[in-house]
Design goal:
Blueprint: E1 3-7, H1 10-17, E2 21-27, H2 37-51, E3 58-61, H3 91-110, E4 123-125, E5 131-134, E6 147-149, H4 155-158, E7 169-172, H5 174-184, E8 191-193, E9 200-201, E10 206-212, E11 220-227, E12 234-240, H6 248-257, E13 262-267, H7 281-298, H8 300-303, H9 312-315, E14 322-330, H10 336-346, E15 349-351, H11 357-362, E16 374-375, E17 381-387, H12 394-401, E18 408-416, H13 419-425, H14 434-446, H15 455-459, E19 469-473, H16 481-490, E20 493-498, H17 505-524
Parallel strand pairs: 2-3, 5-6, 6-7, 7-8, 12-13, 13-20, 14-17, 14-18, 15-16, 15-17, 18-19
Antiparallel strand pairs: 1-2, 4-5, 9-10, 10-11, 11-12
Helix pairs in contact: 7-10, 14-17, 16-17
Amino acid sequence: MKKSIVDLTSRDVRMRRRGVVTIKKQRKLFEFDIPTTNTLRVRQRSFEEVTSNRDDPVVIEDEEDEVEEGEEEEEEIRCPICNVDITKFEIYQKEAHAESCLEKKQERRVKVVKRPTLPDIKILRFDSGYKVVVDGFNFEKDSGINQYFLSHFHSDHYMGLRKSWDHGTIYGSQITVDLMVSKFNMSRDLVRVLPMDRETWVTETISVILLDANHCPGATVFLFQEWDSTRQTVIKQILHTGDFRSNPELIAKLNSICTSRINQVYLDTTYLIPGFHFPTQNSVLEVTAQFAFDLVQKGIRNYFNDSQQSIFKFVRRKESLFKCLFLVGTYTIGKEKLAIAIAQALKTKIYIPKKSSRFKIISNYTSYFPKDLITHDLQESCVHLVPLSTLRSKESIEAYFKDYSSVYDDAVGFIPTGWTYTNKYAHAPDLPTIESRIQYCRDLLKDDSKNTLELKFITRQYKQHGKYQVFRVPYSEHSSFKDLVLFGTSIPCKEILATVNLHSVERIKDMHLWFNAWRIMENES
């Protein structure tokens, strides 16, 4: 998880009086991945500048904290880069100011560090010789390319973008473009919003259609079609999935649009490993939402026949407003569907603090949520969107929950991730021949036993007498192995190119054996 500016508040002053200095690291807007080496070096210098004259022990917190309400005094806060007073700035303004300072330092270094050449996997080539780039911004400028496409707003895909980026025009969905402009303060002249499910001409003879990738908000699949000079005959078709969770609806749309074989499919192969299966998204959402509803109806301790009572029940002076607070861990963008499903099942809303950096981000795609589902009023909600780091330990949950213990009896966390399921059940089978791979795929497509999430997968994670409960649920926004098999055998195509897990020749060869098996199966159908 990338972090941003060091934010020292009056709470830190009180902590220092007790012998500990707490340095809060605000979350960097829109980020969720591991920082790069360069950003780590810059931030390390920033921390050293702030803490160089302190003799107290330093504790680094990872929560998305804000200045506590009701504070009468606040220690002066200065930017650790340029020393400007930013005490009165809102949190996101502090972040923006510091990021601007950091960017200026980074740009000075970039001038003497040559970027790598664009790899072939990032370039889509058409028969006319025309080229476009998808999700490739951290590379040397190619004078022959001036159109770039961003599939979704996750940092491993937009890496390299900044305000000064000037390689060409960037295309994407409304949500993706809005997030990009908001984060990097890019000129609207540099970007172009493309509509969903509708053909758009990007040159005289090349069109593109954006389809929902069933990934994070704004994520899209790109279908490029090259036409003859009359725009009557398709010459070439290229599909780029970005990151996606395939489903029958997407397959049906593609097959209705494409009347001939797709020439190339650039495929998200994150889970192209036999045994990596997990339930459908709808099943996970339904089972988890019903589980949350039952916990509220019965009470979590009664549900599990646990006699242990929450310590807060013994110190609370009055009845709480809600029996349970549900903390749904999410990326900065992504995984919101689980929180939506739980909130709708409980007939409540999703709470996000109005002045938080998270709401600053979500304000770019509020239309993604059902109308009026987001609230800034605690009394209207028992579902909170929180960073995944909030659920990493009992201590981190308690640090978050302590401010809300008068409103809720208990706290329950949900961590949505496909790896939860697959790590336990993935067993790579021995499939030495193409025939054995074909048979494995055929058997898998007929087996619906893993499509539905069993409640016991969640309930067996309960920790008897635990103060807080955290449940991992197999909700994934990437295609499972079975999803990929169904997609690969249902979409007529001439060539499939893997975009993930390209770290070894052996891995690439193995993926291409699966592609060959799918092609044989598709031709036989």
